[in-house]
Amino acid sequence: MVFGHCYSSCCSRVYARACLVKDPGIGEGVSPSAATDLIARSIPLQERSRAVAVVFGGLSFGSVLGLLFAPPIIQNLGWESVFYIFGLLGIVWCLGFESLKVQRFGDKEGILNLGQSSTGSDGLISSAMSSESSHSSLEDLQNSLKDVPWGAFFKSKAVWAMIYAHFCGSWGHYTCLSWLPTFFSEELNLNLTEAAWVSVLPPLGSMIITSIAAPFADNLISNGVDTTKVRKICQTIAFVSPATFMMLSSVDLGLPPWEIVAFLTSGLALSSFALSGLYCTHQDISREYASILLGITNTVGAVPGIVGIALTGFLLDSTHSWSISLFVPSIFFYLTGTAVWLAFASSEPQDFSKSEPES
């Protein structure tokens, strides 16, 4: 019985963490910054929230599909199969976009390649040019990294506000992602199947809230509301909502289990307002360095995925209290993150390059 319960709990955590793209490894870690750079350079301010919602809202869509399909895959093919199947789907997705690029730009690339190959009949010259191009690209990359005004970033209060907000939001996200299935099972006495279905509700709710929050933010900006004020409103909703619902869930009000599930689902779904708050601010303050700024905040935001999950388990073993181990730390970070965000966040464009002293 004990082994079966532990195995079921572990499986629920394995497929939950395996299916969410928002917890990237080294390879996937570059994708959020790449997407942010494209949005910053190509999408106007009045449409930015919707663009971010479409791109990063896909995480919730993937979460729903992952949480639905992973359990039968694990049951029939073993837990390793989740990684193989989802990894293969990622490769197919990438190849699909590569073929789309070839269809749209194939002729132009062919003309360029034809021009290069005509300079040499045996292909040696074009090969040398390719080698020189690769070497030049590496040098350009090294030079571009040296030119990044790292010091100016960390002198900005707005950047520090983004860093701390990202950390706080990730703490609540990662700890709930990892421990709520166990909370539903052990504290609310839901069976594994019910806990698995309930785990689909937060990302499903996030998809609904995202479709509301993004047009709401863009319409406010289009109607002349200050961008900083819009980002602060959205991020405050994203932090205060889950904190409030966690408070209600952590105290003994004699509520039935499904009402607690509804509270937690609503709070986590409303945290998707962050896509129109924090996740747009990197692009607001600097189109040129938006991807690097997201890389900085996202790196700090990954820390709770390591520390927060382990600390929650340690506190749970020590106190045997879900309120103290899971909810209280998240509430603390949500509320302090709100205070820091309201005090120091800004969407005013900043020229970080001019902030660096001339050498």
UniProtKB/TrEMBL annotation:
Keyword Transit peptide: yes
One GO cellular component term noted in the UniProt record for this chain: chloroplast membrane
Keywords of the record: Chloroplast, Membrane, Plastid, Transit peptide, Transmembrane, Transmembrane helix
Gene3D superfamilies named among the record's database cross-references: MFS general substrate transporter like domains
Keyword Cell membrane set for record: no
Record domain Major facilitator superfamily (MFS) profile: where: 1-348
Membrane topology recorded in Swiss-Prot or TrEMBL: Multi-pass membrane protein
InterPro entries per the UniProt record, alphabetical: MFS, MFS_dom, MFS_Na/Anion_cotransporter, MFS_trans_sf
Domain of life: Eukaryota
Primary subcellular site in the record, as a coarse category: plastid
Location(s), subcellular: Plastid, Chloroplast membrane
Residues passing through the membrane, by range: 51-70, 82-100, 159-180, 200-221, 233-254, 260-280, 292-316, 322-344
One annotated GO molecular function: transmembrane transporter activity
Summary of the function given for this chain in its UniProt record: Probable anion transporter.
Family, similarity comment: Belongs to the major facilitator superfamily. Sodium/anion cotransporter (TC 2.A.1.14) family.
Protein name: Major facilitator superfamily (MFS) profile domain-containing protein
Organism of origin: Sorghum bicolor
